[in-house]
Amino acid sequence: MTNPLLLVMVLAAFTSVLNNSMVNVAIPAVSAHLHVSASASGWIVTAYSIVFATGVALYGRVSDSYSLRATFLAALVIFGIGSLACALAPTFGVLVAGRAVQAAGAAAIPSLAYGSVARLFPAGQRGAVFGTLSSAVGLGAAAGPLVAGIGVTAAGWRVLFYGTLAVIALLFAAAWRYLPDLNAERARSPHRFARLDLPGGLLLASGAAALLFGMTTANHSGLAAPQAWGALVAAVLLLTGFTIRIRRAAFPFVPPALFANTQFLSASGIALLSQGAFIGGGLFLTPLLLINQMGLTAFQTGLVIAPGAFSVALLSPTIGRLSDRFGPRAVLGTSLSILLAGLLFMSSFAVGAAPWRVAIALVIASTGYAGVTSPAANAASKALTAEIAGVGFGIYQLFFFLGSGTGAAVFGSVLALRQRQGTPALNPFYGQGTATAAFSDAYLVACIAVLVALMLLIGLGRARPVSMEKS
């Protein structure tokens, strides 16, 4: 049963990432067709991101108390409804609403995929399986720009959502046939709804969404904007409420001991920081550098970025197996060092230079990033019993996702600040003049994030798995 399960989860992970990466590339065509400004078109991404952050932990907890198959099938239906709404959207508002519905379904995929691996595969095999999932994610990221370029050119942007809908239909049939009905006994328990701790889950989800919205708004409007600091204050209050709730609830959304587990916190922190540095730094800043500063077209930019994305897809399964053999900490130490080297090379020698140097820097950084995703997930799984694998990986994926969202906001703010100042680069090895010096500094900040991730390695391998203490 596990091999078909893995195929379903791999295809689901590929589809969710492909959907997002190709939509990002299609935004200019959507903006032109629906007559919206460049700034307003950002809601195509923002609406999806906020709802995704809200749902990713909730689905994990649901899968701990209810059937994995039923939860996954329901999420695919929601994902499909959102895709159809986007494909048929007559106005920009309907498109944004459709993207939010898409996210409400797609949020199930990462937590359910990784949680099911933690339940069904023994500890010595998880690294390889996590690597396969990471490979699907990398392949989706690499294929997205190419699929979008071909699809938009040949048939317009709506064809992208019709294509997603077709793949979702295939996924639904495969999931109906092959996904196991985990938690069947628990799903019939009279306490099944109470076990969800819906108030706790909503506090966590709302706090995460407020944090992401606040960081994104601060990037666009400045931290002094009322909607930015207001959202950040709300995030602090909501997350404080969540902390109080899980300490008092008879069936907490997640056991409080999980947030005291050094293994889980270190793995989640490494995921957050590396995701922020690579996605928020490498993949968010690089298109701005290549298109806005160096004058490349979107297609040329895709060619520069694609080799790095394919590196992630090709290397992830092998690195996952290495984390099973040598342990996550050893592989993570090497991989984070390579990621640091790639970002430092970008800051020092690639920014403002020929595009081939940028491609080399991205390949180096991508090689390191490929060695972080599956070993970090493998390390997090060691802190989770099967009983809380769903919610545990939901929260791990929340850290992972918030890394890319907050990373883009932080590095975008650094870029904007340094561009306003117009001073020479802080990196002493940078020698390309002041025109692109701000990009060099932004990549340098990404290097600092990786250095902090390296320090978190100290916390791996020192804690026992956590169970649902109050269940």
Automatic annotation (TrEMBL):
A Pfam family recorded for this sequence: MFS_1
Localization: Membrane
Membrane-spanning ranges: 42-60, 72-97, 103-121, 128-153, 159-179, 200-218, 224-244, 264-291, 297-319, 331-352, 358-377, 398-417, 437-460
GO cellular component: membrane
Annotated Major facilitator superfamily (MFS) profile domain residues: 5-464
Protein's membrane topology: Multi-pass membrane protein
Alphabetized PANTHER family for the sequence: MAJOR FACILITATOR SUPERFAMILY MULTIDRUG TRANSPORTER MFSC (PTHR42718)
Protein name (database record): MFS transporter
Organism: Salinisphaera japonica YTM-1
